[in-house]
């Protein structure tokens, strides 16, 4: 009944990643914060992907599995419909809170939230109770595709208008959400085409390009989102990733060459000589360890440019982490006494002087004031 289908496994991994990051964000964030809203959105994203046919690729036959479990099929359909409608209601509102640009401003008000909720509930009822589910589903998918295109434009716009340390995080989020929006937007558009014009009787039950994009959208976006968040919390995360890439490159070259030499010797000679050849290859590679490490360092530099394990870089990253925390505190409508105490604790833990912290705060306030003055003229 089950098989080791790679796309089905990746779909389950993507759902698990969404929910894991959602739990982490919920535990470390405060009520009403952007991170708390993102955690809810990730839960819905996991529910939506998990209730689709994507995880069912691990079954030998999706139609046979659904036919044998009709209650599961019915419940999964309603859960997936709920996830789609919840994404439509929550995603624009989250973008309005997280990006705060002129593009997202209409969805920041209570009226905008109410309009999104009304549209989502109406589409849910129309799909569930309408005479032709295809019509309602097509309207829902069209609304979702429009939402994903809108989110992509808003993310890029937020990155282009951001300044300072916030610009780096905005770029990471634009890449993460933008990739997910493109993939999910294509999937829903492709699913609409399949629903109306496909002549394939197994349409919707095969791991076609639509489902591949559906799965990869979440699978790639969630690690990028986690990195964007951790980058504002851990000043040395870039150094850790750089070190990991460097060591993984060296280890990968060792393993690949040993495997190739030992397998080639086993094929043309014997198993014993193959194992011996592998050991000899490892011994020879030890003489070339320094060139290999230099090559791995170039690979790590290409993957993580401008990342150096120096006191100057560490001090620069500490300043960026503090500036990001300061911008987040001001982003919520002013710095409260509790947030000020947390900022002081963060400043002390990072080893930033009080004078430097005050300079960062003045510069950040000046940039924000400049953006506010420029907004009416934009």
Shape: elongated
Major sheet description: none
Compute the average pLDDT: 76
**Strand fraction:** under 5%
Kindly report the oligomeric state of this protein. single chain
- In percent, how helical is the residue content? over 70%
Radius of gyration: 25 Å
CATH topology of the largest domain: Rhopdopsin 7-helix transmembrane proteins
Which regions have little confidence, pLDDT < 50, spanning 5+ residues? 233-247
Q: Please report the number of helical segments.
A: 14
N-end to C-end Cα span: 59 Å
How many structural domains in the coordinates? 3
Q: Structural class per helix/strand content?
A: mainly alpha
SSE sequence, one letter per element: HHHHHHHHHHHHHH
Please tell me the CATH architecture of the largest domain by its name. Answer: Up-down Bundle
Task: Give structural attributes.
378 residues, mainly alpha, 3 domains, elongated
Question: What report would you give on this structure?
Answer:
- The structure is a single chain.
- With 378 residues, the chain is mainly α.
- The protein has 3 domains: 6-230, Rhopdopsin 7-helix transmembrane proteins (Up-down Bundle), CATH 1.20.1070; 238-303, no CATH class; 311-377, no CATH class.
- It has 14 helices and no strands.
- Helix 1 packs parallel to helix 8 (209-230) and helix 12 (311-331) runs antiparallel to helix 13.
- The longest helix is centred in the middle third of the chain and has 33 residues, at 165-197.
- It is elongated.
- The relative contact order is 0.07.
């Amino acid at each position: 009944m089950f098989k080791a289908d790679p796309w089905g496994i990746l779909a389950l991994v993507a759902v698990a990643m969404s929910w894991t990051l959602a739990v982490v964000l919920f535990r470390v964030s405060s009520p009403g914060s952007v991170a708390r809203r993102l955690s809810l959105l990730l839960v819905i994203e996991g529910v939506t992907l998990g209730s689709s046919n994507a995880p069912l690729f691990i079954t030998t036959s999706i139609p046979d599995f659904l036919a044998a479990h009709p209650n599961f099929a019915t419940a999964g359909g309603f859960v997936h419909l709920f996830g789609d409608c919840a994404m439509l209601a929550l995603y624009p509102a989250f973008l309005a809170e997280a990006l705060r640009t002129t593009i997202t401003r209409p969805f920041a008000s209570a009226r905008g939230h109410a309009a999104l909720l009304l549209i989502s509930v109406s589409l849910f009822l129309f799909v569930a109770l309408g005479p032709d589910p295809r019509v309602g589903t097509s309207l829902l998918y069209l609304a979702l595709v429009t939402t994903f295109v809108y989110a992509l434009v808003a993310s890029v716009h937020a990155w282009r208008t951001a300044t300072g340390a916030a610009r780096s995080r905005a770029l990471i989020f634009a890449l993460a959400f933008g990739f997910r929006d493109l993939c999910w937007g294509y999937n829903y558009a492709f699913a609409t085409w399949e629903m109306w014009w496909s002549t394939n009787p197994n349409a919707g039950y095969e791991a076609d390009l639509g489902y591949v994009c559906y799965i990869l959208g979440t699978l790639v976006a969630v690690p990028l989102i986690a990195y964007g968040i951790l980058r504002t919390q851990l000043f040395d995360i870039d150094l850790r990733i750089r070190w990991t890439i460097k060591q993984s490159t060296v280890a990968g070259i060792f393993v690949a060459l040993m495997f190739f030499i030992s397998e080639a010797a086993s094929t043309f000679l014997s198993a014993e000589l193959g194992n011996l050849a592998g050991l000899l290859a490892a011994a020879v590679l030890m003489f070339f360890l320094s060139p290999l490490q230099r090559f791995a360092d170039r690979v790590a530099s290409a993957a993580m440019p401008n990342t150096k394990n120096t006191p100057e870089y560490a001090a620069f990253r500490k300043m960026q982490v503090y500036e990001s925390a300061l911008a987040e505190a001001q982003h919520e409508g002013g710095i409260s006494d509790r947030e000020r105490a947390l900022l002081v604790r963060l400043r002390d833990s990072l080893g930033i002087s009080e004078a430097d912290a005050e300079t960062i705060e003045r510069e950040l306030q000046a940039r924000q004031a400049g953006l506010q003055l420029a907004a009416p003229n934009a």
